[in-house]
Structure to design on (328 residues):
């Protein structure tokens, strides 16, 4: 009896069948496996199935068997366990910088890491309405291109835009291209930002990746090493609250001891808090004096206060006064 053209792919189809159709709660019996292969025009006998299962196990697939009331064969441990896939899918779905269309595409691919039966659980978990998404679909490809420029240490050019009230793009610099040298990407407050050395202003700046377009990787080598010989991306991100620009200044904060975790969450675990009496602490650290920094302080409702230097305190008071004056 001649073999079908699919016979050579028998082991591959068996591997796919186990990965997609089985898990610990849904094993397949050998007759079910033979029937499934037959639907693919692949002939198999019981003994050959056992040999193939053993071959897959030796290859590294965690093929397990179970006896009892519901016997059968299934894949045990996977590269990504179900809780890990759930975590990844929820991160994709809740990420603001990924559009809904791209989120749906990524979720469908992530479902392939689980069995068909587990995919039903994943669907029930991830589709939550009302999550805000960016409008720029190209961000997915922008990130990939920026990673290439960073790895190659090359300068890039791009156009930068905002949206008007009609959701139309309005280009900054009257549409002229920016020339920068990328140093890293930061995910902050549900947005992706590029940190780069601006060739025109000769300083480090940051740009919302979803507002960048027409990115071109040039043949020019990256600049900025002379001005920033020991540049640290993490340190830059900690200082620039909400990615707003402003003057950098060393400030002293005084807070209640029960609010220490808020400071560590914002500035990192390396920040040293100095006890100030039995109920308070002080901390001195560099920050960027910006609306976002003042907003963070205001949101703490006096549990953490700005006590110095005078220039920072005065700037904070001016911001509060301007906010009050703006109230009708």
């Amino acid at each position: 009896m001649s073999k079908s053209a699919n016979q050579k792919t028998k082991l591959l189809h068996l591997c796919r069948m186990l990965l997609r159709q089985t898990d610990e709660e849904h094993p397949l019996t050998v007759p079910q496996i033979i029937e499934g292969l037959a639907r693919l025009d692949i002939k198999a006998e019981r003994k050959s199935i056992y040999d193939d299962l053993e071959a897959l196990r030796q290859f590294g697939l965690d093929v397990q068997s179970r006896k009892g009331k519901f016997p059968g064969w299934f894949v045990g441990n996977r590269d990504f366990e179900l809780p890990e896939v759930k975590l990844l899918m929820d991160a994709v779905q809740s990420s603001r910088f990924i559009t809904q269309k791209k989120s749906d595409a990524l979720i469908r691919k992530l479902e392939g890491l689980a069995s068909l039966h587990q995919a039903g659980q994943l669907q029930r978990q991830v589709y939550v309405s009302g999550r805000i998404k960016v409008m720029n679909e190209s961000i997915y490809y922008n990130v990939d291109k920026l990673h290439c420029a960073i790895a190659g240490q090359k300068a890039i050019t791009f156009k930068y835009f905002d949206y008007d009230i009609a959701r139309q793009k309005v280009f900054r610099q009257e549409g002229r291209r920016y020339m920068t040298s990328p140093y890293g990407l930061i995910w902050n407050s549900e947005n992706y930002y590029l940190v780069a050395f601006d060739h025109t202003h000769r300083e480090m700046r940051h740009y919302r990746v979803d507002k960048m377009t027409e990115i071109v990787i040039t043949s020019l080598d990256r600049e900025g090493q002379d001005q920033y010989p020991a540049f640290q991306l993490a340190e830059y991100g900690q200082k620039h609250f909400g990615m707003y620009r402003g003057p950098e200044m060393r400030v002293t904060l005084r807070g209640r001891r029960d609010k220490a975790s808020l400071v560590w969450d914002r500035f990192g675990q390396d920040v040293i808090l100095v006890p100030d009496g039995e109920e308070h602490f002080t901390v001195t650290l560099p920050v960027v004096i910006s609306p976002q920094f003042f907003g963070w302080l205001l949101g703490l409702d006096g549990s953490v206060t700005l006590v110095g230097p005078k220039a920072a305190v005065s700037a904070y008071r001016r911001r509060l006064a301007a906010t009050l004056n703006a109230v009708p």
